[in-house]
Amino acid sequence: MPSLPPRSSLRPSRTPADTSAHAIRVPAARAVVDCAVYVDGHRQPGRYTHSAALAEVRERGEGFVWLGLHAPDERQMSSIAEVFGLHALMVEDAVHAHQRPKLEIYDDVLFLVLRTVNYVEHESISTAREIVETGEIMIFVGRDFVVTVRHGDHSGLSGVRAEMDAHPARLALGPTTVLHAIADHVVDNYLAVTESVEHDVDLLEEDVFSPSSHVAIEQIYLLKREIVELRKSVAPLGAPLQRLGQDSNLGVPKEVRRYLRDVQDHHTIVADRVSEFDEVLSTLVEAALAKVAVQQNTDMRKISAWVAIAAVPTMVAGVYGMNFEHMPELQWSFGYPAVIIVIAVVCAGLFVTFRRNNWL
């Protein structure tokens, strides 16, 4: 079987016009959010470029580099990859994003993709247009470095870095402890988002099963669509976390694996909640459709009852509207009032009958 060319060679080549339009080189430093050298868990003073930081660590023979990037383009990421020795496929995934959560190993570099989620605040579930927004964090872990690439405005890691800087004993375990801290942060955020979504699901459930409420089924579909997006972000992360927590051949220290197993437990709780939301919303869709059907049946009974009542005067008027010479009580002076009274009595009798049968 002939071998396929690499993915990079499958892309259409740029025309000279395209090259001139995109020839502006933006330095890799523009994508750098923070870059630091850690030795024995302590952040070293001074500001470093990514290349200078790695050179410092390798010259010392100890410590590691933690480099944080935000939405780098292909040129910037290629520059970073050249310094840290990252595979070309890693570069492609980091630039284009939209990846499922996964764990891959390239030589001695771990590559973990996490999907981040953020709850979009809204006044009411009935007026919401978006409930959950997603982003991505990609983590490259080597022997003496950890590189994080994030996409999305809500996926900042400054709080994680500040917390880790305050606990040098944890950072002393090496770059994989940063991977754990980020995974723990992302999964904890999953828990917070599911709690907020659970509140929306409960409100929607109350509205659907309230007799006097009229819930637009489109809102149920909207929330279900957001739950599907949440499930796609959360569920695939289970296998990578399990492997990181159990596989001793990945180079993850035993103590860090223990922490990762705790993250896996929290992830399982989140995944179960999301599955429950999906089941509840499927039930709500069925209940809402049944409620609509019942309402339509009630409306049809009311319409049928009023049509039956209206049929009585229509029938009598139709009889007396015919041009016959010999009509019932035609010459009787009380004929017209008598007919009106008969019509009223019959219509009233029908109204009472339908009312007792809950048709009206």
From TrEMBL:
<keyword id="KW-0813">Transport</keyword>
<feature type="transmembrane region" description="Helical">
    <location>
        <begin position="334"/>
        <end position="354"/>
    </location>
</feature>
<keyword id="KW-0472">Membrane</keyword>
<protein>
    <submittedName>
        <fullName>Magnesium/cobalt transporter CorA</fullName>
    </submittedName>
</protein>
<dbReference type="InterPro" id="IPR045863">
    <property type="entry name" value="CorA_TM1_TM2"/>
</dbReference>
<feature type="compositionally biased region" description="Low complexity">
    <location>
        <begin position="1"/>
        <end position="14"/>
    </location>
</feature>
<keyword id="KW-1003">Cell membrane</keyword>
<comment type="similarity">
    <text>Belongs to the CorA metal ion transporter (MIT) (TC 1.A.35) family.</text>
</comment>
<keyword id="KW-1133">Transmembrane helix</keyword>
<dbReference type="InterPro" id="IPR045861">
    <property type="entry name" value="CorA_cytoplasmic_dom"/>
</dbReference>
<dbReference type="InterPro" id="IPR002523">
    <property type="entry name" value="MgTranspt_CorA/ZnTranspt_ZntB"/>
</dbReference>
<keyword id="KW-0812">Transmembrane</keyword>
<feature type="region of interest" description="Disordered">
    <location>
        <begin position="1"/>
        <end position="21"/>
    </location>
</feature>
<feature type="transmembrane region" description="Helical">
    <location>
        <begin position="303"/>
        <end position="322"/>
    </location>
</feature>
<dbReference type="Pfam" id="PF01544">
    <property type="entry name" value="CorA"/>
</dbReference>
